[in-house]
Each structure stands twice: as C-alpha cells, then as structure tokens.
Amino acid sequence: MLTRTIAIHYVRAALRGARRGGHDTTPVLAAAGISESLLSDDRARVTAEQYTHLIQALWDELDDELMGFGPKPSKRGTFQTMCLLAVHCPDLGAALRRGLDFYDLLDSRPNMALVEADPDTYRLELDLSTADDPDHFLAESLLVLWHRFSSWLIGRRIPLRRVDFSYPEPPHGGEYHLIFGCPLNFEAQTTALTFDTRFLRMPVVQDESALHRYLRGSPAELLSRRDYGANTAGLVRRILGNGITGGLPEVAARLGVSAPTLRRKLAAEGTSFREVREQLLRDQAVASLVRGGESVEDLALRLGFSEASAFHRAFKRWTGTSPGTYRAGNT
C-alpha cells in the first residue's frame, strides 16, 4: 500500500464538533499520536494511521459516528448495521437502496438519495442543510465513505464521472483532486457523486466474514484512504512508489506514452510530474518520522537526496517545520 498523508485541515475540521460540544480533545489527539502544535501550521500533515486513530477516538468520546456535525448523534454501530444489511444484497443497486432505506429510519440520518440522472448515469445526492458543518467536513466524509464502500462491495473501483458541491471551492479544495480523481463542480444545485449506471447492476462479491475484517478499521480507514490509481497522477505516483528511478521520460515509457503526452495528461488534472513526485516524497518522509527508527540522514539518502541539508530544506518547504522538530512533536 502506498504511503499517504492527510492535510492538517482535516484534523482541525474533525475536532470542531467535539470542541463545539465542550469536549476536551487533548486525550483524543494523544490517542492518535498527533501533537497539538501541528494544528497551527497549515502545511502540516499526519499519516493515514494517525487520522484513523483520531476518528475512532472521536467516536469513543462522543458516541456519535457523525462526530457532532449531524442534526442528532448517530450511535456507534449504526454504520456496521447498515453494512450487514447491504452485504447480503445481490447487486450494488439493491445494496445502496437498502442502505439508504435503513438510514431513512433514523432521526440522525444523513439525507441521501439515489437518483437516475439519465439512462447512462446515476447520482448519489447528499443534502446536509440541517447539519452544522461549516468546514464541509461531514459532506466530504460521507461522499468518500459511500464511494469507497460501494467500490468495496463489488470488488472494483467505481470511477466517478463528476462530483458536485453545493458550496464554493474551499481553501483546501486542492485536496479534492487527490480524493476524488475526477472533474469537480462547485456552487452546484446539489452535492452529489455521478457514476455510470452499469455499476449498479454489478454483483456484490463480499460476504459477512469479509465484512468483519473490513470493519476493523472502517469507516475511519476509508475516510483516510486516498483513491490513488484513479487517474494519471495516481498511476505516476504508484510507479514512483514502487521504487522506479528516473524522471518523466522513464515513467512515460512505463505507461506506454510519450513524455509530452504524459505532461499534458498531468496538466489536465491540475498537476505536474514534479508535484506528484514531491507529494510522494513528502508523504514518505512524514510516515518515516512518525514511525521513528530511521535517522534523518538515512531517510534523506533513501529518498534520493544528495545530502541531508537538501532534505531539510525540502521538508521545511513541504510542512513548514524541520524534520527534527516534526519528529519531536510526534513522539
């Protein structure tokens, strides 16, 4: 599995509901191994594991899977019960409809609907007008959660045609491209995922025993999982993450395209080869410093830096702090 990191924005946003309800979040952060000092730096990142532990600690503290953002709390175990109902359905369409019907019975339900957009596409629409969600944290989390769960049910990733948001692009909107890997439309009439109708006819391939394994880290793990591999940038990241050395021409050859074509494809996704490579190096560096056990000098060498000072400069550019300071704040 490729190393991933999560922007500190999502940590701050996740804590908002608990803090608004008067809960002390210091033990929650400690349970996740996240230093309070990181919250003040917009460039800071945490690992997927830290973020998963944070979400689970918030559930324990609040006994609410909506983490204080919904109209009413959603008790622990609600998502698991929905999954148990859905996994016994014959196909994805039936599973989604059963899951949505289940949530319709609850006062804490997220208002969601499966709507036919045209014969070729369906939309999973989300209405959170009754939620108190100023950072759009709940909206983003639910969209990611239902997309990832649907893909898991049928055993293959469901490529999204488009994602609509009923609000302006937020300051952290750049993260959305990494999360969803498809065209994004802000200030739309509704918040929704759009995908091909054919996926609703695909059979559910998971069973209850697989679900128990899946739920050990879910849905928190789902919220932290980035959907790499969904687009050209994801393919480039995967090749680089597998230890392939070289620059853009070498990676383009592995993908069977010319270097100019790869450059154009990345530009169309709002990124570049250098940006993808730097994001991967940043994520690998953050993960190593959080784990510990590897010196900064060895880490710099492993990541391909000619000297530790060059790595120090790059890491400070990525996260706003030095490797040593970051490590100290996560121990």
Automatic annotation (TrEMBL):
Gene3D superfamilies per the UniProt record, alphabetical: Homeodomain-like
UniProt xrefs under PROSITE patterns: HTH_ARAC_FAMILY_2
GO cellular component: cytosol
Domain HTH araC/xylS-type: from-to ranges: 248-329
Stored Pfam families: Arabinose_bd, HTH_18
Alphabetized InterPro entries for the sequence: AraC-type_N (IPR032687), Homeodomain-like_sf (IPR009057), HTH_AraC (IPR018060), Tscrpt_reg_AraC-type_HTH (IPR020449)
GO molecular function, one term: DNA-binding transcription factor activity
Keyword list, A-Z: DNA-binding, Transcription, Transcription regulation
Name used for this protein in its record: AraC family transcriptional regulator
Species assigned in the record: Umezawaea endophytica
Lineage of the species this protein comes from: Bacteria, Bacillati, Actinomycetota, Actinomycetes, Pseudonocardiales
